[in-house]
Amino acid sequence: MDFNLFSSANFQWVFFGSLLLGFANGVIGSFVLLKKQSLISDAMAHAALPGVCLMFIIFEIKSIPLFLIGATITSLIATHFIQSIVKHSRIKTDAAIGIIISVFFGFGIVLLTYIQQNSSGNQAGLDSFIFGQAASLVRSDVQLITIGSLILVIVTTLFFKEFKISIFDPQFARGIGLPVSFFNGLLLALVVGAVVIGIQMVGVVLIAALLITPPLAAKYWTEKLGMMALLAGIFGAISGVSGAVLSSVINDLPTGPMIVLCASVIFFFSLLFGSKKGMAVKVVRQL
Amino acid sequence: MTYTLWIILTGSLVGLTCGVTGSLLVLRKMSMIADAISHTVLLGIVGAFFVSQSLNGLPMLIGAGVVGILTAFFVESLHSSGVQSDAAIGVVFTSLFALGVVLISFIGDQVHLDTKHALMGEITFVPWNTLQINGVNYGPIAVWMLGIVLILNLFLIWIFYKEIKISTFDPQYAKLIGVPVVFVHYLLMTMVSLSTVASFDSVGAILVVAMLIVPGATAYLLTDRFFPLLLLSGGIGILSALIGYGFAAYWNVSVSGSMASASGVLFLFAFLFSPKHGVIVRKIKNKQYAS
Asked: Which of A139, A173, B109, B197 is the most buried (most CB within 10 A)?
């Protein structure tokens, strides 16, 4: 047990970083859920790994901003591939997602082992992109996570109404002169942003859970999108903080899986006791 | 047999077993269930370890089978309670997988089971982990497990060939003429879980997902008929394993990662050049019609 952590300045950054990261993912995830793109976000996350590795191979330095740029590029390529496979062949969306997830991630692992064979020791830490490790974050990393998440939350809040209309009723949105494809693109950028910023702390394998689970839990409490996004944000923030704290306090617990597990507990609780569609409510109503 | 041959044989068996089983899932639009199960069997393996305190084949197979079916069941129940299917799959598999990974870190160094192993497997250790009975060496355990699961899967497909075929192509009609559709569904889920756990130890979750989905999808671009599709999918699985191994040996990189990449390259070829469905071939044909 390492209680010094609570007092260290670094810990305060990890606290705020995981809080805002969870909040941003929960809010953005609500739109992802509405657009039925939960599993596409999982593909984006897995596809971030080769991007990170390629940046290291090309520039031979460990620079988080560069890694995140690489991750963004390969995530967008993966999304584009999924769309073109579905569009140009008879492969269905789910198979296309599965293909892209496994092939991109497999290629990422190939690059990771290539780096381990061929470079001089300072690659340590690339592994932590797989499952995330809050303990390995330095202050500048956490600051990046915090500020990035803040920007995501602000942009989502600013265009909340526009996103809502262009998802629910694209025809109407076009009718009143909204640039729907622009907002679809912006939303895609936000999702990629949320995934990429989170991979250091949660890891590429499980970051999508932070987009999927909190909004799904929120759905058991409310039917209004605004309320759902807010609740999802709060659930995400609770998961982020409790996961990050637990994994720092108890040695060797991987951060990403702990955060996801906290979100799963919240989901399970909501599934049972949610005030709108929870199982308990359903049972009571039937009596 | 030599060290290299054992590894190639293991990879090919994974390709064949997963390729044949997975092609059924691609046809039934259940690829992501395969993805989910191949992640969650980790929990089954860890659970089996906590119960039996060993990493023996049989408890692992049972644990993985149970968790695999549970995964399918949870997804099904969430879906029927009104959760959209992609989100249902997402929440179930990430939860169970995260639980598995966290539990692994409690096992610590007692046994050879860690998160990296779970993802990437240890195919290079396969030839060392052999089956010994009365001091006689019968070859790697992984090969035995894969061989048994392969035979079992082929046997089940052979027995229920008609039922699987009808319920895949026309579930409504199948229900109407009394084919046990739900039984076939869970039969397939069991086959997927078994294939996964037999492959898991040697090649890890990544390659299992790749081999379950990619060869089936590639074969689906090359043929329209059911039986050839099964054969082709198995063949493409083996081919991916062979190409991937060659690449991995040459560059000295992860074997399972490069087998997954090889399957991706084969898919890309089929996507572009398939005589019937290839993008480029269709473009050329369209031009011929136009002129």
From this structure: B197
